[in-house]
Design a protein that fits this description.
Elements (H helix, E strand, L loop, with lengths): L2 H7 L4 H7 E4 L3 H6 L15 H6 L7 E4 L14 E4 L31 H10 L6 H4 L7 H8 L5 E5 L1 H9 L4 E4 L6 E2 L13 E2 L1 H6 L5 E4 L7 H20 L3 E4 L10 H8 L1 H9 L2 E2 H9 L8 E3 L15 E5 L6 H14 L4 E5 L2 H11 L17 E5 L20 E5 L1 H10 L7 H17 L3 E6 L4 H11 L6 E5 L11 E4 L5 H12 L4 E4 L11 H11 L5 E4 L18 H4 L5 E4 L17 E6 L5 H8 L8 E5 L14 H20 L15 H19 L1 H11 L4 E3 L22 H24 L6 H9 L5 H16 L5 H8 L2 H11 L6 H15 L6 H7 L2 H9 L2 H6 L10 H12 L1 H8 L9 H10 L4 E10 L2 E9 L5 H14 L20 H14 L3
Parallel strand pairs: 4-5, 4-8, 8-9, 11-17, 12-16, 12-17, 13-14, 13-15, 15-16, 18-23, 18-24, 19-21, 19-22, 20-21, 22-23
Antiparallel strand pairs: 1-2, 2-3, 6-7, 9-10, 25-26
Helix pairs in contact: 8-11, 11-12, 13-24, 18-24, 19-26, 20-26, 22-25, 23-24, 23-32, 24-25, 26-29, 33-39
Length: 1011
């Protein structure tokens, strides 16, 4: 095949081929390749014989491609030659398809663009071509100088000259690299050690103008090793473009549509590529998806509706199963468990939610933890428990030595591990849990044990983490089921693009009125939320009194007086008795509802609390192929750590705050800090950071992440105005609902929620006062009535605030009042007891961890750095002079803003406050005051230097905090640190903090933040 035909097969314009590609043979290729002065040559200037022999294959001909030198504007000497008879690589494993000039720095393919393609691209981007553009002083550089001069023109980056030609022909500005890692340089010494930061090559630096959109279009490979290499190159190149101020996007497509972008264009056409271009992922979203990838090579790969029997060899120690929701993962595990029981092998099931683990235990015919007496726990043949109980001081008194040679099953492993690493319920015993988990894995594999993990979204993160905990190089046995819904099985998802869920709710109510039976997935359960299960249950029961409604959430499942009590193990039978189900995230995972022809639709409301993956799993709990109706918040608010999407940033920022906290504690003479292990389980901390980055990215692009997850599963996302009409049900009663006005509906629900919420606050305030012993007994019980929950809440409020529990206090606490007034207390009246408070808590954490700290938990327990930062920024002074008139032009406020902006990254990590580079002093003060429940109000304006500026004043909160402060201060006077509800659990200690020590702490904070 001649070169012209080859390029035309890739869809490249004929004139573009003529301008950039030349056929060569004989000695001509060497004339193009051997121009470097660094080549070893003979005295007569000829290249030495060894190199000539290496390139003698080029004599048989091939084609040469080169473009324009972006740095000089002249013809580029650098290019590539594709020989007709390629030579083998040094290891002879593959042929070298392309030859580049040896002993030269790699360049880029900035191909010459014919005028008609130039006009086509300009028209595409609504740009006019002037005679000056076309008749540029550097004619070879004309097109590319125009691109450089117009940063609004997006630029595609691909690998290989033909692919750039295909993109230019399709109407896209495109630069090609000779290799995926050729776009940047990393300085290294003679030994190969890195000695500086990576940077873009000069040609790309010239194009990477701030504000330009960059689209990376590298090959879509299916080989795990190649995928890793390509992902690394995209991350590196994308980060450097981002640092240059560019907006980076990654174009992705299915490998079956073509490996390279030229194949994609040739096979699927321009329309498909245009769609892929428009749907290109931002670099952040792409990174998040990369963290969700599984690149381990598969040992068994199928594409089947149900998994069935799995041919897992007996020698496999770690088995990973990745299979979509509803493909029978649990059924396949049942058979594996049966075989293990026959072999008399112990079974240990580890999960993250009690009811879900109980359900698995029921299917595996083994007891759950609470069904076992601690006296005979060593003799049992199997057990299921939550990862929260995986430590010696739990109800299970878990001892990994009892589980050597066992079959360990972790279903929904991604969420189980995240729960173990980040959940509040594991926080007090996290170090002990992680130590036990590591020992369990090590000892189990040392003998004949096996570990099976399964998840529809199984990723490298989980496998990497488990293998690192085991401490040995282990090749996991991977089972992948690539099954995706076909057109008949895929359920359409009707997306509501509005900023609020009003239309979604209006349509849901109308759906019920027409006789629909919806399964509704919600993000909350409390009456504090107008979108919670409790609020909608009460509203819908009043609106449709004859409709049977069941609320399923963590409270109803454990309330013996509720119809949902213990229903999770029998959902397929129980749900047939109801017309409407309102479900919280308590059944987002591990539940399969296989009822057919009962429910007419599934409705999802994603407020930004659950992860994108969890939302998609919630929608998939119902296996029946019925339509889904979904509203998603555009932005999630449940971010982790400092909210960063960078793994290094999450780790380094956490470590820095830890060092700050430790330095402050050392000034309180806490001896336990001398031998503290702040680098406990680096593998666990790394896994936490990877998963946190994944969560944070999905929260930033919440709606986009959810919809992308849905389409990846082959479920089409449709416009919500194409609602599916419900089939008329014969003799079905028509419910009267008079108003279609969503605004009126929202007002009605809010009024209803407010009334019921006030009643609940009153019931808590009027609850029975219980003793410490009664509280301990009640709190340990999984099963609790509504009244018992109210009594527990009242007990906690009494302990927390030390004042009378009123309905107003209940409401304030639900709004996060405690965290705000606690900061205010230690910033003012209780400042002298702050060191005692932090020292006591740190001491207990260190003791529980036996000298080890899990950094994220330790940082969240300490207040010293937060208080110190607020002091450095002058908040106590503002509180003392709260009547002061504040102007953004005041010198002290300007100085404060300068400090805050300079250290905005540290402040974000320490306090969770985001400060923009251009934030005004008033904006910064308002954000800081909000942390303690204060506010700012504009009281007028004043002329300053001939300009009128607004004047502000601090707004004092009208609440009962001063009464609380008095009680806290009295308790702290008697026993420092006792103002905290947790005080009685922890070691009683005292370390008087002098004003000198306070000033030392403040000075240390100043130095540490590099003011």
């Amino acid at each position: 095949m001649n070169h012209r035909q080859e390029w035309q097969n890739s869809g490249v314009d004929e004139q573009l081929i003529n301008l950039n590609v030349t056929a060569l043979e004989g000695t001509s290729p060497l004339e193009y390749l051997f121009y470097s002065d660094a080549l070893p040559r003979r005295n007569d200037g000829r290249v030495n014989n060894s190199i000539l022999r290496r390139y003698e294959h080029t004599e048989q001909g091939g084609w040469w491609c080169s473009g324009v030198d972006l740095l000089t504007g002249s013809e580029d000497l650098w290019g590539c030659f594709k020989p007709n008879s390629p030579r083998a690589s040094y290891d002879e494993h593959k042929l070298i398809k392309y030859e580049h000039p040896p002993k030269t720095s790699a360049g880029v393919f900035a191909l010459r663009v014919p005028l008609h393609l130039w006009r086509q691209l300009a028209q595409r981007h609504h740009q006019d071509l002037t005679p000056e553009d076309i008749n540029n002083q550097l004619p070879d550089l004309g097109f590319w100088q125009w691109v450089i001069n117009h940063p609004s023109i997006p630029l595609c980056i691909t690998e290989g000259a033909k692919k750039a030609g295909a993109l230019l022909t399709a109407g896209y500005a495109a630069i090609a690299l000779p290799g995926i890692n050729s776009g940047y340089r990393t300085p290294r010494d003679k030994l190969g050690n890195r000695i500086g930061k990576s940077r873009l090559i000069p040609q790309l630096e010239k194009l990477a103008i701030s504000g330009r959109k960059m689209y990376i279009a590298f090959d879509q490979d299916s080989q795990p090793s190649t995928i890793k290499e390509v992902n690394y190159a995209i991350r590196k190149l994308g980060s450097l473009f981002t640092q240059a101020g560019c907006q980076v996007n990654v174009i992705v497509w299915l490998p079956k549509w073509g490996k390279g972008v030229d194949d994609f264009l040739a096979h699927k056409g321009l329309k498909f590529f245009n769609e892929a271009y428009e749907k290109a992922l931002s670099l952040e979203i792409w990174r998040a998806q990369g963290l969700s990838q599984l690149t381990y090579p598969s040992d068994v790969e199928v594409s089947t509706r149900y998994l069935g029997d799995l041919p897992i060899p007996t020698t496999a120690k770690l088995i990973g199963i990745k299979s979509p929701i509803g493909t029978g993962k649990t059924k396949a595990l049942e058979k594996i468990v049966e075989q293990a029981i026959i072999r008399q092998q112990k079974i240990l099931v580890i999960g993250h939610r009690v009811k879900l683990v109980e359900q698995l235990c029921q299917r595996f015919k083994i007891p759950y933890l609470t069904e076992i007496s601690t006296n005979n726990i060593q003799d049992i043949k199997g057990c299921g428990l939550c990862i929260d109980s995986l430590h010696p001081n739990s109800l299970s008194k878990f001892n990994p030595n009892n589980w050597t040679n066992s079959l360990i099953i972790i279903d929904e492993v991604e969420q189980v591990l995240w729960h173990g690493l980040n959940s509040n319920t594991c926080q007090k015993n996290r170090v002990s849990i992680l130590k036990t988990f590591k020992k369990l894995l090590e000892q189990n594999l040392e003998f004949e044990g096996r570990i099976i993990i399964a998840d529809a979204d199984l990723s490298d993160i989980s496998l990497d983490y488990l293998i690192s905990l085991m401490g040995i190089k282990l090749k996991p046995f991977i089972v992948i089921n690539n099954w995706k819904s076909n057109e008949k099985e895929a359920w359409g998802v009707y997306n509501y693009p509005e900023t609020t869920p009003q239309e979604w709710l209006k349509d849901l109510v109308q759906h019920i009125q027409q006789g629909g039976k919806p399964f509704v997935c919600l993000s909350a359960q409390k009456l504090t939320s107008k979108w919670g299960t409790q609020t909608l249950e009460l509203y819908l029961k009043k609106r449709f009194p004859e409709v049977r409604i069941l609320r399923i959430d963590s409270e109803s499942l454990t309330d013996p007086n509720h119809n949902a009590y213990q229903s999770i193990n029998h959902l397929n039978q129980i749900l047939l008795n109801y017309d409407i189900i309102l479900a919280s995230p308590s059944i987002e995972t591990g539940v399969s509802i296989d009822i057919k022809d009962h429910f007419t639709s599934v409705w999802g409301l994603a407020q930004g609390v659950q992860t994108a993956t969890s939302i998609c799993q919630s929608l998939g709990r119902i296996r029946d192929n019925i339509p889904r109706y979904l509203w998603c918040a555009s932005y999630g608010f449940n971010k982790v750590g400092n909210g960063s999407t960078s793994i290094p940033n999450l780790l380094t920022s956490s470590n820095r705050v830890t060092q700050l906290n430790i330095k402050l504690l050392q000034q309180s003479n806490l001896e336990a800090l001398d031998d503290i292990d702040t680098e406990f389980q680096a593998e666990s901390l790394l896994c936490w950071a990877k998963m946190a980055a994944r969560v944070n990215v999905s929260m930033i692009h919440y709606r986009e992440s959810i919809l992308k997850n849905i389409t990846d599963q082959n479920h089409p996302v449709l416009c919500k105005n194409k609602l599916v009409k419900i089939k008329e049900i014969e003799n079905h009663k028509k419910y009267s609902y008079n108003s279609n006005n969503s605004h009126q509906l929202m007002k009605a629900i809010e009024s209803f929620r407010k009334q019921n919420y006030q009643e609940e606050c009153l019931m808590i305030a009027q609850g029975t006062e219980i003793t410490d012993q009664q509280y301990q007994a009640l709190n340990k019980r999984l099963v609790k009535t509504v009244n018992e929950r109210h009594n527990i809440k009242k007990y906690n409020l009494q302990k927390r605030y030390c004042i009378e529990v009123t309905p107003q206090l209940v409401a304030l606490d639900n709004e996060g009042w405690y965290d705000k007034i606690r900061l205010h207390y230690f910033l003012t009246l209780g400042r002298s007891y702050l060191a005692d408070r932090d020292t006591i808590l740190a001491k207990k954490i260190i003791e529980k961890g036996q000298g080890s700290l899990f950094v994220p938990d330790f940082n969240s327990s300490q207040l010293g750095v937060i208080i110190g930062t607020m002091e450095v920024l002058g908040i106590p002074v503002l509180l003392m002079n709260h009547e002061r008139k504040l102007k953004p032009t005041d010198e002290d406020l300007q100085a404060m803003a300068k400090i805050a902006i300079k250290n905005r990254v540290e402040i974000k990590t320490i306090m969770g406050i985001g400060i923009a580079k251009n934030s005004s002093p008033i904006t910064i003060i308002r954000r800081l005051l909000d942390k303690i429940g204060y506010g700012l109000t504009c009281i007028g304006s004043r002329k300053v230097d001939k300009k009128r500026v607004r004047v502000y004043q601090v707004v004092l909160p009208d609440d009962a905090r001063q009464d609380v402060f008095r009680q806290w201060w009295i308790r702290d006077e008697k026993s420092p640190g006792s103002s905290e509800p947790w005080f009685e659990e922890y070691t009683n200690g005292k370390s008087e903090m002098t004003k000198i020590q306070q000033e030392k702490n403040k000075n240390y904070i100043q130095l540490s933040l590099e003011f």
